[in-house]
Write a structure and sequence with these properties.
The chain is mostly helical. The protein has a single domain, classed as Ferritin, core subunit, four-helix bundle (Ferritin). The longest helix has 31 residues. Helix 1 runs antiparallel to helix 4 and helix 2 packs antiparallel against helix 5. The protein is built from 5 helices and no strands.
Length: 160
């Protein structure tokens, strides 16, 4: 931990930074998965999905930056290298052999839902560590991620 005058006890800050780095890895992976979908989607809904997936990636990039900055504000080191993310991510690997809009929507929405679940659990963990600011950060991410999940999942609904 780096020195800081932040009044959260060092042991709690270290635990919070670990929690934040876990979610940072998931968010970085999710952003790359959204880009994978954005670049490779094909089919009749191409343009709408291409733009939607890019929007997801853009929002996630903002979440990544906020989480990384919270880590450093607490005296930690944001661990966002490819090597760390590939070891730490909780997400399944994104398939590189899919092209249909439906397959990308299904795969990306599954990953988004997984990250949403983990972020909601992180809200509770941050609360238990008495860090309202980190809990609030995760709450904002959860709210926006759920909204984007709704946008993506709408492409699966009424599909029968």
């Amino acid at each position: 931990m780096n020195p800081t005058k932040n009044d959260i006890p060092a042991k709690k800050r270290a635990t919070l930074c670990n929690l934040l780095n876990e979610r940072l890895a998931d968010l970085l992976d999710l952003g790359l998965q959204a880009k994978q979908a954005h670049w490779n989607v094909k089919g009749p809904q191409f343009i709408s999905l291409h733009e939607l997936f890019d929007s997801v990636a853009g929002d996630v990039a903002g979440f990544v930056d906020d989480v990384a900055e919270r880590i450093t504000a607490l005296g930690g080191t944001a661990e966002g290298t490819l090597q760390v993310v590939s070891k730490r991510t909780s997400l399944k690997s994104y398939p590189t052999d899919i092209t249909s809009g439906r397959d990308h929507v299904d795969t990306l929405s599954t990953a988004m839902a997984q990250v949403g679940k983990l972020v909601r659990a992180a809200i509770d963990q941050a609360d238990k560590l008495e860090d309202a600011d980190t809990a609030d950060l995760f709450t904002g991410i959860s709210r926006e991620l759920d909204k984007k999940l709704w946008f993506v999942e709408a492409h699966l609904q009424n599909d029968k």
